[in-house]
Every structure is written in C-alpha cells, then in structure tokens.
Specification:
homodimer, about 230 residues, mainly alpha, Tetracycline Repressor, domain 2, DNA-binding
Chain lengths: ~230, ~230
DNA sequence: ATTATCTATAGATCTATAGATAATGC
DNA sequence: ATTATCTATAGATCTATAGATAATGC
C-alpha cells in the first residue's frame, strides 16, 4: 500500500511550446508544479490571499499561463481538494470491506489517512483547514470529505456496539478523530510514519475501554493493510 | 469562573454622531458588532476573502466607518486573535499555579479552553485555523497561542514523569490536544459544556495509563476550577 | 466642540480574456 | 499544425484617506 499521491506528468514527452520567459527549461509536469506551488501558498497565505500571479511565479510561469491548465483559480483549489481525497477514499472503501474487528479497521483507517496526507508533497492536507472548503462551490470536495468522516463514525459505532469502545456519539467522535488527522504539523522528511502512528495510537487509546490492547490492535491493523 | 468573553460597550452612553445611512439606530457597542461580524465572515470566507465592505455591511455601517474603529483590516483580525486568547491565557496561568496533580490540571485546562472558545459569540475559536495566523504580522498572537500549547506540554510532561500518562513526546501530544480544542464544530446553544467535556474526556483517555480513573480526575478538575 | 458617521475617490491590486509568438512535430 | 508559452489589457474589485455632515454636549 502507501501509493503516493505523486501526480503523473501530464505529458511526459512534451517538447513543443514557446520557451519560458525566465529561461528555465519547462518542466514536463507543469500542472503538477502549479498544484504544488498553489498548495504551499494557499496553506501559508490562504486562498484569497494568494494571487494567481504568486502561484505562477512560484511555478516559474507568467500569470496568464495558469489559465492554460486551469479554467479558473477555483479550479486549482478544487483539484487540490480532490487530489488529497482520492487516496483516502480508495483506502477507506477497501477497509470497510475487510473482515477484521472494528478497532483494527479504525486504526488502519486513521493510520492510512494521516500517512497519505503527510505523504503528499507540500502538506496538501492543510488545505482542508481553509475556510473555502465550506463554500457551496466546493460542495463536491466537502461531501467527499464527509464520507471519510462517516467511515470513521461507522467504525466507531461498530466498536461501541461490540463493547470495544466506550460509549459516545459516533458522529462527534469521528469529527474529533478527523481533526487529529488534519492537525497542522510541520513534518521533516521521513517523520510521516511516526506521526501516523502517534495519531492512530492517540485516537484508539481515547476510544478503547481496554487501551492495553492497543499494541495487538496496531499489529492487526498493519497486517490488514499489508494484505 | 467561566467569565464570558463579552466585550464591554466601548462607550455605553454614546448619543452623539451622525445617524447611520441605513436608518437603524446605532449600537452602543459598534466595535463589538464589527468584531462579531468580522469573525463570522473570516471563518466562513477567510480573511483575504472578506472585504471591509462586507464586514461593514454585516455591522450595519458604510465601509470607511470601520477605519474609525480599526486602523487597518489587519488590526481587526489581530483584535480577534487577542480576544480569543485573553481568557485562556488568564485561566492557564491560574491553573499552572494550582496544587493539584497533573491529570486534573490538564483536564481543567482543556475543559476551560474548549469552553471559553465555544462561549464566545460566533465561534471565534475557528479564527485560529486561518492561515494568516502564520504570517509574521500576527507574530504576537501566534506566540500567545504557543504559550497555551506549552502549558499543555508542561502538564503532559509532568503526568508522564509521575507515571500517570503513557510515554510520548509532550510537545507533539500537546499539539494534538490543541487541535482537538480547535476542532471546527457547529455548536447549538447550550452545547458548549457537553463539547468541552467530550474533548477533555477524549484527550485524557488517550493520555492516561489507567483511563478508568477518568471520572475521578474529571471531578477533581472541576473542583479545582470552582475554587 | 466633539463624536460617529457619511460620500467620494485615489491608487493598487487581481482575475481572466484576446491574441501574438516561438518552439516542436509532421 | 500543434503546443506552451508570452505580452497587453479590460473590468472589477478592494483598502484606506480626505474631508463633509448631522447628531449630541456644553
């Protein structure tokens, strides 16, 4: 598992096209470069606080060139939302179909979500903290993220029903878990796995009636995922 | 305790001044109204995505009137940050001086922080999720918030040393706790105490080696605070 | 005389479009 | 012929200032 969110070069064989004004050889994955630059800037300055000029400059382009790759500025943010959601959505779907007990599957989901988001270049996960996510024009991305939270909620409800988790409102607990996943963290290279484990351990310890089972549940979860 | 963050009317006896263009009688707490309007808009649309025109309209004023109360748009956000930080900073200072054991004091801190933020009109707490908090011009607010996180970290370190909490990196755990406190939640009226309890219970359950002590710790914490 | 507001507007953006241009590909 | 880029710019903002105005206070 742990497919990275690496975006494939839009056109790996590209040679045509006017040279860039800055003289730098064009990347073969300009779209990817734009998304990376935009993610870093949106997270640092906000969406409205980042001009298309700033994104273009960070990607080594003139401002109007962005509109060759994205119809509007909104479309850039939408692509980032969808990019950060694609992998967790696929993994969660798989996890929900697995046979294991609720605690191990919840551990696996939290672990995979934190890891996938941390994996992505330039902490794409932090885009979910942007207020724009709440705007109607990004309803699709918001709905996809709600599906992730609902998966957490279902697994939590299952664990409460089975007597593994302490009683509580699964929907609210699921939101707390998601806010742990999306906690803004500056990760050095290679720290993502440790962060994923810390977050999943923290969440499961909070939910379990018998937290001394954490180690066994972690092992079961990681075994589930490596199948 | 639980002093609310209610802002005092800047000038409760005001009668002078040109009438408003919208005909509505001027509030006696215009500054307060502006902050409330701005908080709701910043959280919904982001800081740069909210025009001073929009804030003024929501407060029943013409756009330039804002600048009678705040020198710049930045100053509005800065006032919001400081407003949301004032109460937790005061409470944390008190808690650190209290004699109780680390778990109860940590419980008290988390509970008070979640409650204080939820108390404030218009979910001011969500302003801490705005990317602008990271900008140098808001360094003072960011530093104040870091002091809150350091209080969590000190209490967590103390609890680990005393054998109450499971081992871990106090600084990272403190950030996880803060992200629970600031989890974006739409609270109906009167739900804030339940949310504060849920967050504090969740955090302490995750940290304690013996989570069956949670009930006793909660009682101790609430007793501490009502002294 | 003081206060809180207003109207008008300068100057600085910022998004997106139109259309030219300099490469490669055939 | 197609592609990726460029330059130039229209039109729509948006912040903040200047200075007038309509109340109350003395």
């Amino acid at each position: 598992m742990t497919q990275t969110l690496e975006i494939r070069p839009d056109n790996p064989h590209r040679k045509a096209g006017r040279p860039r004004a800055n003289g730098v050889k064009a990347s073969t994955a300009t779209r990817h470069d734009i998304l990376n630059a935009a993610a870093a800037l949106f997270v640092a300055r906000g969406f409205a606080g980042t001009s298309t000029q700033a994104i273009a400059a960070a990607a080594g382009l003139r401002q109007p060139t962005l509109f060759h790759y994205f119809k509007t500025k909104d479309a850039i943010l939408d692509a980032l939302f969808m990019l950060a959601l694609a992998e967790p959505l696929a993994i969660f779907k798989r996890i929900e179909a697995l046979p294991g007990a609720a605690p191990a599957r919840l551990y696996a989901a939290i672990h995979a979500d934190t890891l996938s988001l941390s994996n992505t270049a330039n902490n794409v996960k932090a885009v979910f903290l942007l207020p724009e996510l709440g705007h109607p024009r990004f309803a699709q991305a918001r709905a996809a993220r709600e599906r992730l939270i609902e998966t957490f909620a279902r697994l939590i409800a299952e664990g409460i029903a089975s007597g593994d988790f302490r009683p509580g409102d699964p929907a609210r607990l699921a939101r707390l878990v998601m806010s742990l996943d999306e906690a803004p963290v500056a990760l050095a290279a290679g720290e993502a796995p440790a962060q994923a484990r810390m977050v999943a351990d923290f969440a499961l310890s909070a939910l379990l009636i018998a937290p001394e089972r954490l180690g066994a549940i972690r092992d079961e979860a990681l075994a589930l995922m490596s199948e």
